[in-house]
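Weekly structure sync, notes
Attendees: PL (lead), two postdocs, one rotation student
Agenda item 3: pending single-chain targets
PL asked that the sequence for the first pending target be pasted directly into the notes so everyone works from the same version. It is reproduced below exactly as submitted, 103 residues in total.
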Amino acid sequence: MVMDWLRSWLSRPKPPPEYVLLTRVGCHLCDDAKRLLERLQTEFEFTLRVVDVDGHADLVRQYGDKVPLILMQGRPRLWGRVNPVLLRRMVEKACPRRRPDSA
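Predicted structure, written out during the meeting:
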């Protein structure tokens, strides 16, 4: 009985990973990072939230000028000028499921 429950629990569909992009208005590097993530989102299943740090005093204190900052599963991973090859590799590793309509 317990083993059946464990098997069903392990085989359940997992939600797609969540990525949070911390940005600031007028930040061209933030705009570049957002475009890269949106492009990858057409291939891989993940959710993307974009948050303007200037609207949150705690985020300004915590991350200051480290924008753009990409949080992957809640952990800071990439900031500043985002390397597209490194970002792709990280997304591929975290998102093994490709969208069905991507080639």
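Discussion points:
- The helical segments are 2-11, 28-41, 57-63, 84-94.
- The mean pLDDT is 87.
Action: rotation student to compare against the earlier draft before next sync.
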